[in-house]
Structures are given as C-alpha cells and as structure tokens.
Amino acid sequence: MARQISLDRKELLIAPSLLSADPLEMATSIASLKGQHDWLHVDVMDGHFVPNLSYGPALVKALRKRYPQEILDVHLMVEPPEAFIESFLDSDPDFLTVHVEATAHLHRVLGRIRERGVRPGVVLNPGTPVESLFPVLHMVDVVLVMSVNPGFGGQSFLREVMSKVTDLCRFRAVHNLSFLVEVDGGLGPSNVLEVAQGGADVVVMGSAVFGTEDPGKTLEEIRKKIAGDS
Ligand code: DX5
Ligand code: ZN
C-alpha cells in the first residue's frame, strides 16, 4: 500500500522507538502514542554487530499488517545486512537503514533496497567519520546519525555527533540532494530543541517517550516545545 512520505523538511518529525515499548503490549504502546508520532522506529539487533538482540522481520510484517498506514522506519543493526535485507524488504517497511560499518558492499545494498521499492537509509556510529558516507549520499532518502553507541535504549546523548549533522546539511545543500537527517539515541525533552536547531529533520526517541506514564502527552509537550521556538 502506498503511503504518503514527504521529504520536505518543514517540521521536525518524531519517530518513537519500539525498543522501549513493552514487547508483550506492543499494540497498547502504539495506541498510547495517540497519533502524536510521525514514524515508528523499529530497532533490529543481531547480537553480533551490536551486543544485544531484539527482533526480526516477523515483527515488521505483523506491524505492517496491523498498521497499513504507519510509516515504518526499520534500523538494521545486523552484520552483514545483505544476508538479511530480502526478508525485511518482503515485510514492506517504508525506510530500511543499514550501517556503513556493517558491510563492505554498501553501494550494492542501498541499490538493492531502492530496486525493491523501499526507501534506503544509511546509519553511522558515533565513532565513524561522516565522510565515509559521501560516496553514497545521492542514493539514500535518510541518513541516521547515531548519538549513542547502538545496542541499548536509555543511554546518554553524545553531543559531539552534532557536527556530523551540520556537515550533512551542508553536503546536502551543496549537492542539491534531499535526504532527511535523523538523529537516534539519548534524545528527550531536555535536548530535542538543540538537535532540531542543529539541523535534524527526524528524531528517534525511545525511553523518553515510552518510559513516561502518558507517551501521547509527552509527545504533545515535546511538539509544543519545538513549536514555541519557531
Ligand atoms: C539504539 C537504538 C535506538 C534506541 C533509542 O541502539 O538504535 O533507536 O532505541 O533509545 P533511547 O531514545 O532510549 O536512547
Ligand atoms: Zn535506532
């Protein structure tokens, strides 16, 4: 089913991470967002590329079946991604993002994702230089900048990655590209404004949303905070 996805960078998009939702109450957790979210971020971990395990394509498939209109943003923390992408592509996500550090064949993987009609994204760890992405930025719809070392929710924001957001925005303007810049890890009410002002188009938030009593209200308050600034 075709879902409307705009790459226009008008307002900050919020992608709650289901990693911090109750795995036995996924549907209740999604309902608790009260439609205040833009995308759903799905963290896939293989216990090899990152020191944690989460879930696989069956969850993405089930989410797609239950929520045909949701924008599913699937973040693959698996190595090598080329061994897994076909089953994720079959599960009909909107964005499929792969780590630059996880494959020697990044160009081929991104090309394959696009070929299957899914929007490709590329992710970089805090310790990876942004220049490593420059050769493939014309191929992607989203760049995910990790602001924690991937593997776990609830870690502290690494502010130093914001210079990569600046560099990506500059590269995008110079080369007349249209990918979105997404920031993931350690984000919440205390720093979302600074990340938005730093140039992020999309923010991922796990524990800061699902760790609260009323995730929908939390998102509403975060949106007010951002709007109050503009
Ligand atoms: C980390 C994941 C993140 C994580 C974010 O490996 O990629 O998406 O769930 O969680 P918080 O917002 O709690 O840092
Ligand atoms: Zn993530």
Automatic annotation (TrEMBL):
Keyword field: Carbohydrate metabolism, Cobalt, Isomerase, Manganese, Metal-binding, Zinc
What GO CC annotations are associated with the protein? cytoplasm
- Active site at which residues? D43 (proton acceptor), D184 (proton donor)
Pathways per UniProt: Carbohydrate degradation
Parts forming coiled coils: none
The molecular function terms of the Gene Ontology recorded here are:
D-ribulose-phosphate 3-epimerase activity; metal ion binding
Q: Name the source organism.
A: Dethiosulfovibrio salsuginis
Q: How is the cofactor bound?
A: Binds 1 divalent metal cation per subunit.
The UniProt record lists the EC number as 5.1.3.1
What are its cofactors? a divalent metal cation; Fe(2+); Co(2+); Zn(2+)
Superkingdom of origin: Bacteria
Residue positions binding a divalent metal cation: H41, D43, H75, D184
Protein name (Swiss-Prot/TrEMBL): Ribulose-phosphate 3-epimerase
- By its UniProt entry, which Pfam families does this protein fall under? Ribul_P_3_epim
Which residues hold substrate?
Answer: S17, H75, G151, F152, G153, G154, D184, G185, G186, G206, S207
